[in-house]
Design brief:
The complex is a heterodimer of chains A (about 140) and B (about 290). Chain A has about 140 residues and is α+β, with helices and mostly antiparallel strands. Chain A is built from 2 helices and 6 strands. Chain B is built from 8 helices and 8 strands. The chains are: A alpha+beta (about 140), B alpha+beta (about 290). β6 of chain A pairs parallel with β8 of chain B, so a sheet runs across the interface.
Protein backbone atom coordinates (compact mmCIF):
# COMPACT_ATOMS: atom_id res chain seq x y z
CA UNK A 1 0.00 0.00 0.00
CA UNK A 2 2.79 2.40 0.90
CA UNK A 3 4.60 2.14 -2.50
CA UNK A 4 1.31 3.03 -4.25
CA UNK A 5 0.84 6.12 -2.06
CA UNK A 6 4.43 7.21 -2.74
CA UNK A 7 3.93 6.90 -6.50
CA UNK A 8 0.72 8.89 -6.37
CA UNK A 9 2.45 11.63 -4.39
CA UNK A 10 5.36 11.79 -6.84
CA UNK A 11 2.93 11.93 -9.78
CA UNK A 12 1.10 14.81 -8.16
CA UNK A 13 4.39 16.73 -7.76
CA UNK A 14 5.33 15.98 -11.35
CA UNK A 15 1.99 17.28 -12.68
CA UNK A 16 2.20 20.40 -10.51
CA UNK A 17 5.71 21.13 -11.72
CA UNK A 18 4.72 21.01 -15.37
CA UNK A 19 1.97 23.58 -14.77
CA UNK A 20 4.26 26.05 -13.02
CA UNK A 21 6.27 27.00 -16.12
CA UNK A 22 3.58 28.88 -18.08
CA UNK A 23 2.32 30.49 -14.89
CA UNK A 24 5.72 32.04 -14.22
CA UNK A 25 5.84 33.39 -17.79
CA UNK A 26 2.47 35.09 -17.46
CA UNK A 27 3.40 36.62 -14.13
CA UNK A 28 6.52 38.20 -15.63
CA UNK A 29 4.57 39.78 -18.49
CA UNK A 30 2.01 41.25 -16.14
CA UNK A 31 4.76 42.68 -13.97
CA UNK A 32 6.35 44.59 -16.92
CA UNK A 33 2.98 45.91 -18.05
CA UNK A 34 2.05 47.06 -14.59
CA UNK A 35 5.16 49.24 -14.16
CA UNK A 36 3.65 51.85 -16.45
CA UNK A 37 0.05 51.17 -15.62
CA UNK A 38 0.48 51.06 -11.87
CA UNK A 39 2.29 54.43 -11.88
CA UNK A 40 -0.44 56.10 -13.92
CA UNK A 41 -2.67 58.43 -11.93
CA UNK A 42 -4.15 60.66 -14.61
CA UNK A 43 -4.97 60.20 -18.25
CA UNK A 44 -5.61 63.05 -20.66
CA UNK A 45 -7.36 62.35 -23.94
CA UNK A 46 -7.06 64.95 -26.70
CA UNK A 47 -9.00 64.81 -29.94
CA UNK A 48 -7.44 66.73 -32.84
CA UNK A 49 -8.82 67.55 -36.28
CA UNK A 50 -7.11 65.75 -39.16
CA UNK A 51 -5.58 69.01 -40.39
CA UNK A 52 -4.21 71.89 -38.39
CA UNK A 53 -5.14 75.55 -38.79
CA UNK A 54 -2.64 75.88 -41.63
CA UNK A 55 -4.17 72.92 -43.41
CA UNK A 56 -1.20 70.71 -42.64
CA UNK A 57 -2.02 67.04 -42.01
CA UNK A 58 -1.75 66.10 -38.33
CA UNK A 59 -0.05 62.76 -37.73
CA UNK A 60 0.68 60.71 -34.66
CA UNK A 61 4.37 61.17 -35.38
CA UNK A 62 4.06 64.94 -35.25
CA UNK A 63 2.10 64.77 -31.99
CA UNK A 64 4.33 62.23 -30.29
CA UNK A 65 7.54 63.98 -31.27
CA UNK A 66 6.34 67.56 -31.01
CA UNK A 67 4.31 69.82 -28.76
CA UNK A 68 0.67 68.75 -28.49
CA UNK A 69 -0.12 72.15 -26.98
CA UNK A 70 0.93 73.98 -30.14
CA UNK A 71 -2.03 76.23 -30.87
CA UNK A 72 -1.79 75.53 -34.57
CA UNK A 73 -3.40 72.16 -33.92
CA UNK A 74 -7.18 72.27 -33.94
CA UNK A 75 -8.16 70.68 -30.67
CA UNK A 76 -11.71 69.39 -31.01
CA UNK A 77 -12.04 68.29 -27.41
CA UNK A 78 -9.94 67.17 -24.47
CA UNK A 79 -10.69 65.59 -21.13
CA UNK A 80 -8.71 64.47 -18.12
CA UNK A 81 -9.55 61.34 -16.17
CA UNK A 82 -8.35 59.70 -12.98
CA UNK A 83 -6.67 56.36 -13.46
CA UNK A 84 -7.68 53.66 -12.89
CA UNK A 85 -11.18 54.62 -14.00
CA UNK A 86 -13.89 54.52 -11.34
CA UNK A 87 -16.07 52.28 -13.46
CA UNK A 88 -15.42 50.26 -16.59
CA UNK A 89 -12.15 50.13 -18.44
CA UNK A 90 -12.59 52.94 -20.95
CA UNK A 91 -12.96 56.71 -21.05
CA UNK A 92 -15.60 58.62 -22.95
CA UNK A 93 -14.89 62.07 -24.32
CA UNK A 94 -18.16 63.71 -25.26
CA UNK A 95 -19.12 66.90 -27.11
CA UNK A 96 -16.62 66.31 -29.88
CA UNK A 97 -17.28 68.12 -33.13
CA UNK A 98 -18.17 65.62 -35.84
CA UNK A 99 -15.10 65.23 -38.07
CA UNK A 100 -13.61 62.56 -40.23
CA UNK A 101 -10.05 61.39 -39.77
CA UNK A 102 -9.61 62.77 -36.25
CA UNK A 103 -6.43 62.02 -34.32
CA UNK A 104 -6.73 60.75 -30.76
CA UNK A 105 -3.76 61.39 -28.49
CA UNK A 106 -3.51 60.13 -24.91
CA UNK A 107 -0.93 60.87 -22.28
CA UNK A 108 -0.55 59.06 -18.97
CA UNK A 109 0.86 60.92 -15.99
CA UNK A 110 2.18 59.79 -12.65
CA UNK A 111 1.55 61.21 -9.19
CA UNK A 112 4.14 63.95 -9.88
CA UNK A 113 2.17 64.97 -12.97
CA UNK A 114 4.98 63.86 -15.26
CA UNK A 115 4.06 62.33 -18.59
CA UNK A 116 5.18 58.71 -18.37
CA UNK A 117 3.26 57.22 -21.28
CA UNK A 118 1.77 58.23 -24.61
CA UNK A 119 -0.49 56.66 -27.18
CA UNK A 120 -2.03 57.85 -30.41
CA UNK A 121 -4.38 56.73 -33.15
CA UNK A 122 -5.19 58.60 -36.36
CA UNK A 123 -7.99 58.32 -38.89
CA UNK A 124 -10.93 58.15 -36.48
CA UNK A 125 -14.25 59.22 -37.99
CA UNK A 126 -16.47 61.00 -35.50
CA UNK A 127 -20.13 61.16 -36.47
CA UNK A 128 -22.74 63.43 -34.89
CA UNK A 129 -24.75 61.61 -32.24
CA UNK A 130 -22.51 58.54 -32.35
CA UNK A 131 -19.66 57.25 -30.23
CA UNK A 132 -16.49 56.19 -32.00
CA UNK A 133 -14.55 53.40 -30.30
CA UNK A 134 -10.77 53.57 -30.19
CA UNK A 135 -8.38 51.09 -28.58
CA UNK A 136 -5.01 52.62 -27.84
CA UNK A 137 -1.74 51.16 -26.66
CA UNK A 138 0.07 53.43 -24.22
CA UNK A 139 3.83 53.18 -24.56
CA UNK A 140 6.39 54.51 -22.09
CA UNK A 141 7.22 58.13 -22.92
CA UNK A 142 10.77 58.59 -24.11
CA UNK B 1 55.18 105.44 -0.38
CA UNK B 2 52.37 103.52 1.34
CA UNK B 3 49.72 105.93 0.07
CA UNK B 4 51.10 105.55 -3.46
CA UNK B 5 50.49 101.77 -3.28
CA UNK B 6 47.04 102.33 -1.83
CA UNK B 7 46.15 104.62 -4.73
CA UNK B 8 47.58 102.11 -7.19
CA UNK B 9 45.48 99.27 -5.70
CA UNK B 10 42.30 101.38 -5.77
CA UNK B 11 42.99 102.34 -9.39
CA UNK B 12 43.43 98.67 -10.33
CA UNK B 13 39.91 97.81 -9.16
CA UNK B 14 37.47 98.07 -12.04
CA UNK B 15 34.01 99.64 -11.65
CA UNK B 16 32.44 96.19 -11.83
CA UNK B 17 34.70 94.79 -9.12
CA UNK B 18 33.99 97.88 -7.02
CA UNK B 19 30.25 97.37 -7.54
CA UNK B 20 30.55 93.72 -6.50
CA UNK B 21 32.28 94.79 -3.29
CA UNK B 22 29.60 97.37 -2.57
CA UNK B 23 26.85 94.83 -3.32
CA UNK B 24 28.42 92.38 -0.88
CA UNK B 25 28.38 95.18 1.72
CA UNK B 26 24.63 95.65 1.00
CA UNK B 27 25.36 99.14 -0.39
CA UNK B 28 23.09 98.60 -3.38
CA UNK B 29 22.64 102.23 -4.44
CA UNK B 30 26.39 102.76 -4.31
CA UNK B 31 26.90 99.60 -6.36
CA UNK B 32 24.63 101.00 -9.07
CA UNK B 33 26.47 104.31 -8.99
CA UNK B 34 29.78 102.48 -9.42
CA UNK B 35 28.44 100.78 -12.56
CA UNK B 36 27.28 104.02 -14.14
CA UNK B 37 24.28 104.39 -16.39
CA UNK B 38 25.11 101.64 -18.84
CA UNK B 39 27.17 98.46 -18.96
CA UNK B 40 27.98 99.28 -22.57
CA UNK B 41 29.59 102.57 -21.56
CA UNK B 42 33.22 103.50 -22.00
CA UNK B 43 34.07 102.86 -18.36
CA UNK B 44 33.14 99.16 -18.52
CA UNK B 45 35.52 96.74 -20.19
CA UNK B 46 33.94 94.54 -22.82
CA UNK B 47 35.02 91.43 -20.92
CA UNK B 48 33.15 92.67 -17.85
CA UNK B 49 29.88 93.66 -19.48
CA UNK B 50 28.16 90.40 -18.52
CA UNK B 51 29.31 90.69 -14.91
CA UNK B 52 28.18 94.32 -14.95
CA UNK B 53 24.63 93.40 -16.00
CA UNK B 54 24.56 90.63 -13.42
CA UNK B 55 25.59 92.88 -10.51
CA UNK B 56 23.24 95.58 -11.76
CA UNK B 57 20.34 93.10 -11.77
CA UNK B 58 21.23 91.80 -8.32
CA UNK B 59 21.38 95.32 -6.87
CA UNK B 60 18.14 96.33 -8.55
CA UNK B 61 16.31 93.28 -7.19
CA UNK B 62 17.64 94.09 -3.73
CA UNK B 63 16.17 97.58 -4.12
CA UNK B 64 12.82 96.18 -5.30
CA UNK B 65 13.25 97.53 -8.85
CA UNK B 66 12.40 94.27 -10.55
CA UNK B 67 11.38 95.65 -13.93
CA UNK B 68 14.80 97.27 -14.33
CA UNK B 69 16.46 94.10 -13.03
CA UNK B 70 14.59 92.10 -15.65
CA UNK B 71 15.89 94.45 -18.33
CA UNK B 72 19.46 93.90 -17.06
CA UNK B 73 18.94 90.12 -17.20
CA UNK B 74 17.46 90.47 -20.69
CA UNK B 75 20.55 92.36 -21.89
CA UNK B 76 22.80 89.79 -20.20
CA UNK B 77 21.05 86.82 -21.83
CA UNK B 78 20.78 88.41 -25.27
CA UNK B 79 24.53 89.07 -25.26
CA UNK B 80 25.37 85.73 -23.56
CA UNK B 81 22.73 83.09 -24.29
CA UNK B 82 24.57 80.56 -22.12
CA UNK B 83 24.74 82.89 -19.11
CA UNK B 84 24.19 81.25 -15.75
CA UNK B 85 23.80 82.68 -12.26
CA UNK B 86 25.31 79.70 -10.47
CA UNK B 87 23.78 77.88 -7.54
CA UNK B 88 24.37 80.38 -4.76
CA UNK B 89 21.71 82.93 -5.61
CA UNK B 90 18.35 83.51 -4.01
CA UNK B 91 15.25 81.80 -5.40
CA UNK B 92 13.86 85.23 -6.27
CA UNK B 93 16.85 86.07 -8.47
CA UNK B 94 16.86 82.59 -9.95
CA UNK B 95 13.16 82.83 -10.77
CA UNK B 96 13.51 86.22 -12.44
CA UNK B 97 16.53 85.05 -14.42
CA UNK B 98 14.90 81.78 -15.48
CA UNK B 99 11.81 83.62 -16.59
CA UNK B 100 13.90 85.99 -18.72
CA UNK B 101 15.88 83.12 -20.20
CA UNK B 102 12.78 81.10 -21.04
CA UNK B 103 11.07 84.05 -22.72
CA UNK B 104 14.13 84.97 -24.76
CA UNK B 105 14.51 81.34 -25.86
CA UNK B 106 10.92 81.43 -27.08
CA UNK B 107 11.51 84.71 -28.88
CA UNK B 108 14.62 83.25 -30.50
CA UNK B 109 12.49 80.46 -31.96
CA UNK B 110 10.02 82.82 -33.63
CA UNK B 111 9.77 82.47 -37.35
CA UNK B 112 7.90 83.81 -40.31
CA UNK B 113 4.92 81.73 -41.36
CA UNK B 114 4.83 80.54 -44.98
CA UNK B 115 3.76 83.44 -47.20
CA UNK B 116 0.74 83.27 -49.49
CA UNK B 117 1.07 86.26 -51.85
CA UNK B 118 -2.02 88.37 -52.41
CA UNK B 119 -3.32 89.47 -55.79
CA UNK B 120 -1.24 91.91 -57.85
CA UNK B 121 -2.98 95.23 -58.39
CA UNK B 122 -1.63 95.76 -61.92
CA UNK B 123 0.79 94.57 -64.55
CA UNK B 124 4.47 94.86 -63.68
CA UNK B 125 3.64 95.01 -59.98
CA UNK B 126 4.28 92.05 -57.69
CA UNK B 127 1.53 90.81 -55.43
CA UNK B 128 1.85 92.01 -51.82
CA UNK B 129 3.07 89.50 -49.27
CA UNK B 130 1.22 89.27 -45.97
CA UNK B 131 3.83 88.47 -43.33
CA UNK B 132 2.74 86.58 -40.24
CA UNK B 133 4.60 85.65 -37.07
CA UNK B 134 2.84 83.70 -34.35
CA UNK B 135 3.98 84.60 -30.84
CA UNK B 136 3.16 82.10 -28.06
CA UNK B 137 0.59 83.32 -25.54
CA UNK B 138 3.04 83.40 -22.65
CA UNK B 139 5.52 85.61 -24.49
CA UNK B 140 5.13 89.38 -24.55
CA UNK B 141 6.87 91.55 -27.08
CA UNK B 142 6.39 95.27 -27.56
CA UNK B 143 7.36 95.40 -31.22
CA UNK B 144 8.26 93.01 -33.99
CA UNK B 145 10.02 93.84 -37.24
CA UNK B 146 10.78 91.65 -40.21
CA UNK B 147 13.89 92.48 -42.22
CA UNK B 148 13.39 90.97 -45.64
CA UNK B 149 15.39 90.95 -48.87
CA UNK B 150 15.43 89.07 -52.15
CA UNK B 151 18.24 87.75 -54.30
CA UNK B 152 18.17 90.88 -56.44
CA UNK B 153 19.29 93.10 -53.58
CA UNK B 154 21.46 92.95 -50.51
CA UNK B 155 19.44 95.71 -48.89
CA UNK B 156 16.90 94.56 -46.36
CA UNK B 157 13.50 96.22 -46.14
CA UNK B 158 12.09 96.60 -42.65
CA UNK B 159 8.43 95.69 -42.21
CA UNK B 160 6.75 96.61 -38.94
CA UNK B 161 4.26 94.01 -37.78
CA UNK B 162 1.14 94.74 -35.74
CA UNK B 163 -0.36 92.39 -33.17
CA UNK B 164 -3.75 90.78 -33.52
CA UNK B 165 -4.29 88.48 -30.55
CA UNK B 166 -0.86 86.94 -30.57
CA UNK B 167 -0.56 86.91 -34.35
CA UNK B 168 1.71 89.62 -35.69
CA UNK B 169 0.86 90.72 -39.21
CA UNK B 170 2.42 93.11 -41.70
CA UNK B 171 2.58 93.64 -45.42
CA UNK B 172 5.61 93.52 -47.67
CA UNK B 173 5.63 94.74 -51.23
CA UNK B 174 8.33 92.74 -52.96
CA UNK B 175 10.21 93.90 -56.04
CA UNK B 176 9.15 92.59 -59.43
CA UNK B 177 9.74 88.86 -59.76
CA UNK B 178 11.22 88.32 -56.31
CA UNK B 179 13.48 85.32 -55.95
CA UNK B 180 15.23 83.59 -53.04
CA UNK B 181 13.65 85.82 -50.40
CA UNK B 182 15.28 85.72 -46.98
CA UNK B 183 14.57 87.36 -43.64
CA UNK B 184 15.46 87.84 -40.03
CA UNK B 185 13.42 89.22 -37.15
CA UNK B 186 14.00 91.85 -34.51
CA UNK B 187 11.74 91.63 -31.47
CA UNK B 188 11.57 94.31 -28.80
CA UNK B 189 10.86 92.85 -25.39
CA UNK B 190 8.65 94.63 -22.88
CA UNK B 191 11.86 95.62 -21.08
CA UNK B 192 12.84 97.57 -24.19
CA UNK B 193 15.67 95.19 -25.06
CA UNK B 194 15.93 94.18 -28.71
CA UNK B 195 16.39 90.52 -29.58
CA UNK B 196 17.76 89.76 -33.03
CA UNK B 197 16.39 86.48 -34.31
CA UNK B 198 19.09 85.96 -36.92
CA UNK B 199 20.85 88.68 -38.89
CA UNK B 200 21.76 89.51 -42.46
CA UNK B 201 24.48 86.85 -42.45
CA UNK B 202 22.27 84.08 -41.06
CA UNK B 203 18.96 85.09 -42.63
CA UNK B 204 16.42 82.32 -43.16
CA UNK B 205 14.61 81.58 -46.39
CA UNK B 206 11.05 82.84 -46.73
CA UNK B 207 8.70 80.01 -47.63
CA UNK B 208 6.37 81.27 -50.37
CA UNK B 209 3.39 79.13 -51.29
CA UNK B 210 2.42 78.97 -54.96
CA UNK B 211 -1.33 79.37 -54.53
CA UNK B 212 -2.51 82.87 -53.56
CA UNK B 213 -5.03 81.48 -51.12
CA UNK B 214 -6.02 82.96 -47.79
CA UNK B 215 -3.64 85.89 -48.18
CA UNK B 216 -4.13 87.37 -44.72
CA UNK B 217 -4.84 84.25 -42.74
CA UNK B 218 -8.45 85.28 -42.86
CA UNK B 219 -10.77 83.04 -40.92
CA UNK B 220 -14.37 84.27 -41.11
CA UNK B 221 -15.31 82.13 -38.12
CA UNK B 222 -13.02 84.16 -35.88
CA UNK B 223 -14.82 87.35 -34.89
CA UNK B 224 -11.72 89.53 -34.68
CA UNK B 225 -11.00 88.83 -38.32
CA UNK B 226 -14.49 89.75 -39.37
CA UNK B 227 -13.96 93.33 -38.24
CA UNK B 228 -12.51 95.58 -40.91
CA UNK B 229 -10.54 97.49 -38.27
CA UNK B 230 -8.61 94.37 -37.44
CA UNK B 231 -7.39 94.27 -40.98
CA UNK B 232 -6.06 97.80 -40.82
CA UNK B 233 -2.72 96.44 -39.70
CA UNK B 234 -2.19 95.03 -43.16
CA UNK B 235 -2.83 98.25 -45.04
CA UNK B 236 -0.46 99.19 -47.77
CA UNK B 237 1.33 102.49 -47.53
CA UNK B 238 -0.28 104.18 -50.56
CA UNK B 239 -3.92 104.99 -49.99
CA UNK B 240 -4.70 105.21 -53.69
CA UNK B 241 -7.01 102.37 -54.61
CA UNK B 242 -8.62 101.27 -51.36
CA UNK B 243 -12.19 100.24 -50.64
CA UNK B 244 -13.42 101.01 -47.13
CA UNK B 245 -9.84 101.58 -46.06
CA UNK B 246 -8.70 98.19 -47.33
CA UNK B 247 -6.81 97.07 -50.43
CA UNK B 248 -9.30 95.73 -52.99
CA UNK B 249 -8.17 92.12 -52.62
CA UNK B 250 -8.61 92.24 -48.83
CA UNK B 251 -11.99 93.94 -49.08
CA UNK B 252 -13.34 91.43 -51.58
CA UNK B 253 -11.87 88.56 -49.60
CA UNK B 254 -13.81 89.74 -46.54
CA UNK B 255 -17.01 90.29 -48.54
CA UNK B 256 -16.71 87.03 -50.48
CA UNK B 257 -15.69 85.02 -47.43
CA UNK B 258 -18.53 86.44 -45.36
CA UNK B 259 -21.08 85.71 -48.08
CA UNK B 260 -19.76 82.17 -48.50
CA UNK B 261 -19.98 81.50 -44.78
CA UNK B 262 -23.53 82.86 -44.47
CA UNK B 263 -24.63 80.80 -47.48
CA UNK B 264 -22.91 77.70 -46.17
CA UNK B 265 -24.41 78.06 -42.70
CA UNK B 266 -27.90 78.57 -44.17
CA UNK B 267 -27.61 75.54 -46.45
CA UNK B 268 -26.25 73.40 -43.64
CA UNK B 269 -28.95 74.53 -41.20
CA UNK B 270 -31.72 73.89 -43.73
CA UNK B 271 -30.44 70.46 -44.75
CA UNK B 272 -29.72 69.34 -41.20
CA UNK B 273 -32.80 70.94 -39.62
CA UNK B 274 -30.58 73.30 -37.69
CA UNK B 275 -28.91 70.41 -35.85
CA UNK B 276 -25.19 70.45 -35.17
CA UNK B 277 -24.99 67.38 -33.04
CA UNK B 278 -21.60 66.55 -31.57
CA UNK B 279 -20.18 63.06 -31.39
CA UNK B 280 -18.16 61.25 -28.77
CA UNK B 281 -15.09 59.06 -28.53
CA UNK B 282 -14.73 56.04 -26.25
CA UNK B 283 -11.08 55.26 -25.60
CA UNK B 284 -9.93 51.91 -24.30
CA UNK B 285 -6.35 51.71 -23.07
CA UNK B 286 -3.78 48.95 -23.01
CA UNK B 287 -0.44 49.63 -21.38
CA UNK B 288 2.72 48.34 -23.06
Amino acid sequence: MKPILLMLTLSAFACGGSELEPTRGTTAAIHLQSQLESSTRKVTVRVFAARDRQNVIVTCTSLLSGNVLDDRYELLQSAEFDYPPAAGASFVVSDVDAKDGAVIYVDARNASDQVIGEGCEAGIDIKGGETANVDLVVYPAS
Amino acid sequence: MLSFFAIAIVAAVSPVQRAEQLYNQARYDDALKALGRSCQGATIRESEQAACEKVRAFALVALGREAEARAAFDRLIVANPDADLGADVSPKLQSLFSSAKREIAQVMSLQLEPVSPGVASGSGVSAPWPLTVRVPGDVEVDALHVHIATASTSRYSEVTLRSQDGVWIGMYEPPTEPSAPRYYLVATLTSGVNVNVGDAATAKAVVVSAAPLDPIGYDPLEPQHAQPNALAATRRRDDGDKIAGLPPWAFWTVVGGGAAVVTGVLIYALTRGGGDEPGAVRVGLTFQ
